[in-house]
Task: structure prediction
Amino acid sequence: MDTSAPTPTTMTIRAASLYYGIFRAVKEINLCFRPNVVTAIIGPSGCGKSTLLRSLNRINDRVAGFRVEGTISLGDTDVYAPGTDVVDLRRRVGMVFQRPNPFPMSIFDNVAFGLTLYAPPTRAALAALVEDALRASALWGEVKDKLRRPASELSGGQQQRLCIARAIATRPDVLLMDEPCSALDPISTLKVEELIAELKCSYTVVIVTHNMQQAARASDITVMMNMDAVDRAGHVIEVGDTDTIFTNPKHPQTEAYVSGRFG
Amino acid sequence: MRLRQGVLAQSIFFTAAAIVAISTAALLLFTGSRGLAVFSFMGPGEFFLGTSWNQNDQTFGVLPLLLGSLLTVGLTLLISGPLALGVAIFMVEIAPDPVRRVMRTVVELFAALPSVIYGLLGLTLVVPWVRVITGGGLGKGILAAVIVLVFMTQPTMVSIAEDALRALPESLREGALAVGATRWQMIWRVLLPAARPGLITAVVLGTGRAVGETIAVQMVIGNITSRLPESLVRGATTMPAAIVTQLPEATSPEHRAALIMVAFLLLLITFGLIAAVRAAGAIGSPRRPTRRRRLTPTARPAAAKGAIDV
Result:
C-alpha cells in the first residue's frame, strides 16, 4: 500500500475491529483511503463491507450494540474519540446509500438541505450552490426546469444522483457510497459510474460494491474482503491497484472471487 | 365453483357496504328532519344567534352550546396536540426500548378507560383542584373539562402519531444524519414533514373524540346553558353535554326538536372532521403520473378483472 504521508482528507483505519455486541463482525483492518482516489471495497455478502463503510461516518452508531476497537481517523481527527463532534464529522464525510433516499420535499430543498442546517447562505448563494451540486452530479440538465417539483417524481437513477448531489452540496472531504447502483438499471448505473470518476477529482471516494465490473471500471484501488472461515469475522484479504487485483491477484481467494467462482 | 364463490363474496361485501351507506343516510335523514323541525317554532336567526338556551322560557339559542364546545375543544387541541406530538417523538426517537414499552402500555391503558372513569377522576381530582387555584366557585367549568379531555385525547393522538413516525423508513433518518443534521434537525426538518398526513390524522381524530365526548365532560363542566360561557372556571356546557343532560326531561316538542338539531350539527361537525382526515391523507401522496397512467381501451377489461393494479 502507498505509504506517503496522509493529508487532512485521508481516512486512515488502524488495527480496527468492529463489533455488534460480542460478535466481532470485522477484524484487524488497516487501510488508508486517499484523496482523489476511488477505493472500491469488494467481497462476498456478509463480509462486513457495509459495516466497515458505515463506521467511517459513524452512521452505524444508530445500530444498538455497535462498537469499534482500534482507531479510525480523518486527517488527524480521531473519529471515535469521545470529544469528536459527530455532526461535524458527518458534514466532512458524506454518504450515499444503497437505495435512493430522497426526502419528501422538492428537488431543490433536497439538495439545499445540508446547506441550510448551519448558517444558511443567502437565497442567491444557496441557489448557486444547489446548481453547482446538481451540475456536479450530472442532474442539472434533467431537473433545472422542475426544481420545485417533489423529488419523488424523479426516476430511481435520477433520485440516486439527487442523493449524490445532496451529499456533495456541503462539500465534504470524503464521499462514502454503499452499493450506490444496486437499485438502478444499467443506464443509470453507467451514469453514476461516470459521475464517480469525475467526483474523485475533488473527493476521497470509498465505494462498496457487489458488482465486479463496477469495481473494475470505476475504482483505482480495490480492497478485497472476505469472512474468516473460523470466527466469521470479515477481514481484508488483499489490497492493491484495481488493475492488479483484477488481472494478477496474489491471493487465491481474490482470484476466485474476481473470476466469479464464489461469492 | 370459483366463480360462484366470487359472486357470493361480492354480494356479501356489497350488502355490507349497502347497510353502512343506508344506515348513514338514515341517520342523517332522521336527525336532519326531526332537528330541522325546530325552525317551525322559531326562526334560524333566533336559533343560531340566540345567546340563551333556557327551557323554562322556551328560548333555544344554540350559541352557549356551540361556543362552549368550540372553547373546550379548541383549548384541548392547543394543549393536547403539541403534547401528543412531543410524547410520540419521545417514544419513537428518544426513549430507550424499555421506557418506550412502558409508555405504550400506559397509553393503551388510558385508551381503555371508560369515559365515566375519566369523569369521576375529573370530579374528584380536577374540579377540587380548580376550585382551590381559583379561590372559590364550584370549580366546574371549561377549564376542568379541558384538563379531563387532554387526558382523554392523548391515547388516540399519541398512538396514531407514534405509528406515523415509526412507519417512516430508517433510510430517511440515516439520510438526514449523513448530511450533518442533528437529531432535532432530523426530527423537525425531515421526519415531521414526512409524517405530516399521519400526524394531522392523529390530531383530527383526537379532536373528534373531544368534540363528541359526553359523559366525562357533562360531569365536570357544570351544565349551564342559559348564558354564554363567561369564564373558564364558571359553569358552561358543550353540545353533547347539553343533549345528554336535557333530553330525558325535554317534554315540549320545541325543546326536543332543538336538542335534536344540536345533535344534527354535531353530526355535521363529525363528518367535517372525517373529511379533514381524508384530505390530510391525500396531501402526503402526490399523484405520480406513472401510477395514474390512463388505461387504454383494450386494457380496461383486464383492469376490471383485477389483472392490472390500477
